[in-house]
Amino acid sequence: MRHVHFCLALLSGATSQALTPMPDAALRNWANGYWPGCIVGTNIDETHPGVSGATSLWLVT
pTM of this prediction? Predict the structure, then answer.
Protein backbone atom coordinates (compact mmCIF):
# COMPACT_ATOMS: atom_id res chain seq x y z
CA MET A 1 0.00 0.00 0.00
CA ARG A 2 2.86 2.37 0.75
CA HIS A 3 4.28 1.77 -2.69
CA VAL A 4 0.99 2.82 -4.32
CA HIS A 5 0.81 6.04 -2.29
CA PHE A 6 4.41 6.88 -3.13
CA CYS A 7 3.81 6.34 -6.87
CA LEU A 8 0.67 8.47 -6.77
CA ALA A 9 2.55 11.22 -4.97
CA LEU A 10 5.25 11.20 -7.64
CA LEU A 11 2.71 11.31 -10.45
CA SER A 12 0.73 14.16 -8.94
CA GLY A 13 3.88 16.18 -8.29
CA ALA A 14 5.08 15.80 -11.86
CA THR A 15 1.88 17.20 -13.32
CA SER A 16 1.50 20.23 -11.07
CA GLN A 17 2.41 23.66 -12.37
CA ALA A 18 4.11 26.51 -10.62
CA LEU A 19 1.66 29.34 -11.18
CA THR A 20 2.30 32.86 -9.92
CA PRO A 21 -0.58 35.36 -9.88
CA MET A 22 -0.16 38.27 -12.30
CA PRO A 23 -3.04 40.70 -11.67
CA ASP A 24 -1.92 43.36 -14.21
CA ALA A 25 -3.67 42.66 -17.54
CA ALA A 26 -1.19 44.77 -19.54
CA LEU A 27 1.76 42.85 -18.10
CA ARG A 28 0.01 39.53 -18.84
CA ASN A 29 -0.54 40.63 -22.45
CA TRP A 30 3.12 41.64 -22.77
CA ALA A 31 4.37 38.37 -21.27
CA ASN A 32 2.04 36.28 -23.43
CA GLY A 33 3.20 38.19 -26.51
CA TYR A 34 6.86 37.69 -25.59
CA TRP A 35 6.51 34.04 -24.46
CA PRO A 36 3.34 32.67 -26.14
CA GLY A 37 1.47 30.24 -23.91
CA CYS A 38 3.05 31.33 -20.61
CA ILE A 39 -0.19 32.78 -19.20
CA VAL A 40 -2.73 30.40 -17.65
CA GLY A 41 -5.85 32.36 -16.71
CA THR A 42 -4.49 35.27 -14.68
CA ASN A 43 -1.28 33.45 -13.67
CA ILE A 44 2.14 33.08 -15.24
CA ASP A 45 3.43 29.52 -15.58
CA GLU A 46 6.93 29.44 -14.09
CA THR A 47 7.66 26.09 -15.75
CA HIS A 48 7.18 27.54 -19.26
CA PRO A 49 10.52 27.21 -21.14
CA GLY A 50 10.60 30.90 -22.07
CA VAL A 51 9.87 32.07 -18.54
CA SER A 52 12.23 29.64 -16.82
CA GLY A 53 14.99 30.54 -19.29
CA ALA A 54 14.69 34.29 -18.69
CA THR A 55 17.64 35.62 -16.73
CA SER A 56 16.35 39.15 -16.16
CA LEU A 57 13.29 41.30 -16.71
CA TRP A 58 13.46 45.08 -17.01
CA LEU A 59 10.24 47.05 -16.72
CA VAL A 60 10.50 50.72 -17.58
CA THR A 61 7.56 53.11 -17.45
Answer: 0.62
The reply to whether 3 falls in a domain is no
Cβ neighbours for 18, distance < 8 A, ≥ 6 positions apart: 45, 46, 47
Is 1 inside a domain boundary? no
47 with 18: CB under 8 angstroms? Answer: yes
Q: What is the pLDDT of residues 5-30, one digit of tens each?
A: 444 444 444 445 689 999 999 999 99
Buried b (16+ CB within 10 A) or exposed e, 24-39: eeeebeebeeebeebb
- 20 and 43 in contact (C-beta within 8 Å)? yes
Distance of CA 43 to the CA centre of its chain: 7
Which range marks the domain in which residue 57 is found? 17-61
Enter the DSSP assignment of 48.
Answer: S
